[in-house]
Amino acid sequence: MAGLIKKQILKHLSRFAKNLSPDKINLSTLKGEGQLTNLELDEEVLQNMLDLPTWLAINKVFCNKAVIRIPWTKLKTHPISLYLDKVVMEMSTCEEPRSPNGPSPIATASGQSEYGFAEKVVEGISLSVNSIVIRIKAKAFNASFELSQLKVYSVNTSWQLSDLRFTRIQDPQRGEILTFKEISWQMIRIEADAIQSGDHEILSAPVRLITNQSKIKVTLKRRMKDCNVVASKLILFLDDLLWVLTDSQLKAMVQYAKSLSEVMEKSAQQRKSMASESNQNPAPAPTSQQVRTQQTAAAADQNATNAKLFSSYDVQETSHHLQIKHLDLHICDDIHSKDRGNAVQGQWLQLLLWPPSLPFTSVL
User: Fold this and answer.
1) Is 47 exposed, middle or buried (0-12, 13-18, 19+ CB in 10 A)?
2) Which of 85, 210, 332, 339 is the most exposed place for a label (fewest CB within 10 A)?
3) DSSP secondary-structure letter at 359?
4) CA-to-CA distance for 59 and 48, rounded, in angstroms?
5) pLDDT digit string (tens) for 237-283?
6) pTM over 0.85
7) Are 51 and 229 in contact (CB under 8 A)?
């Protein structure tokens, strides 16, 4: 039995890299430690796992070094630890929405569809990345994101590190499960630069933003029968944020947003169409025979408690939220602007928001 579980877990992990079979993952039998170098990760598997919007595609992902530690005797309570040194990801926007994401790799790797023990272990993986660089090519601009000391880990409903058994809420009656994740990093640097062409007349310095330590709280709702994500809630927390923009940089940002709006709208329509088709052909509800089990009264009470807890944290629809502790935004005119006319030089505008919170329903 132990050998079968080990084989399933390694099969899960091998799916995330190209040309990597489970037998190539050499782990210490007792310590459960191993190391891999120069890995090219599978773009399609990552797209499916991250459930990326169909207006955005991953083209290439490379990792120079990976270290894995598997606590074979504590898999129910302790996470597998995956340490990556440097990750470089190349992405692009799509002029037309790409094909919808495929089934979750969490389920397909084990050869079964239901959310079982191996799936719980893989979803509970703790990830640490020294540095990650994400480059995005769009029609009107190129953008890059550089993050340092990125960490992804499972948490309980109070958003604290905990026994893995308390990082998920399962409701067999609904056939769904909630999991809670937190993503944190020490620093992120964002830069966007316009692609000069006849269609884009705005010339400006690259738009840059550097933030300090931040985090994202994620709640995922999956179907237990196929492990696919039904809905998610993402909250981005930023501390004090000071951002200085010139007039031309602000105009460039508006143009960047316009260049993405059309394909984002098409992607949203595609998603709505898929959701309506899914509603027209709903999965059959569990029969009374499937739900009924030989259990004690205490177990029945526990299921009722879990159902009530599930309802308290349930995610009805996908949404993204932004919370900033303190936002200080400065907008100033360009020193060498040619179209200033008779305007007074050195004009600037300061916006001070405290505490800003920007929730919105995702249309990605």
Assistant:
1) buried
2) 339
3) E
4) 13
5) 988 888 888 888 888 888 888 888 888 888 888 877 876 666 555 55
6) no
7) yes
**How many other CB atoms are there within 10 angstroms of residue 278's CB atom?**
11
Rounded Cα gap, residues 52 and 190, in angstroms: 19
Write the single-letter amino acid at 70. Answer: I
Distance in angstroms (rounded) separating the CA atoms of residues 276 and 274: 5
Helix, strand, or coil (residue 152): strand
11: part of which helix (H) or strand (E)? helix 2-14
Cα separations in angstroms, 29 against 3, 20, 72 = 11, 19, 9
* Average pLDDT of the residues of the chain: 79
DSSP state string for 309-338: HHHHH---S-EEEEEEEEEEEEEE--TT-S
Q: Which residue has the tokens 């692009």?
A: 92
Please give the residue that has the higher pLDDT: either 17 or 1.
17
Cα separation, 27 vs 190, whole angstroms:
37
Question: Which residue bears the tokens 């579980």?
Answer: 5
**DSSP conformation letters of 258-321:** HHHHHHHHHHHHHHHHHHHHHHHSPPPPPPHHHH-----HHHHHHHHHHHHHHHHH---S-EEE
Q: Which residues contact 225 (CB under 8 A, 6 or more apart)?
A: 113, 114, 115, 175, 283
**Three-class DSSP category at 216:** strand
- Residues near 74 by Cβ (< 8 Å), separated by ≥ 6? none
Q: What are phi and psi of 204, to 5 degrees?
A: -155, 165
Residues 313-359 pLDDT 10s: 999 888 888 888 888 888 887 765 555 555 555 577 777 766 655 55
Contact (Cβ atoms closer than 8 angstroms) between residue 85 and residue 130: yes
**180-to-153, 164, 216, 313, 317 alpha-carbon distances in Å:** 9, 10, 11, 10, 16
Whether omega before 355 lies within 30 degrees of 0, making that bond cis, reads yes
Q: Which residues pair with 211 in a beta bridge?
A: 188
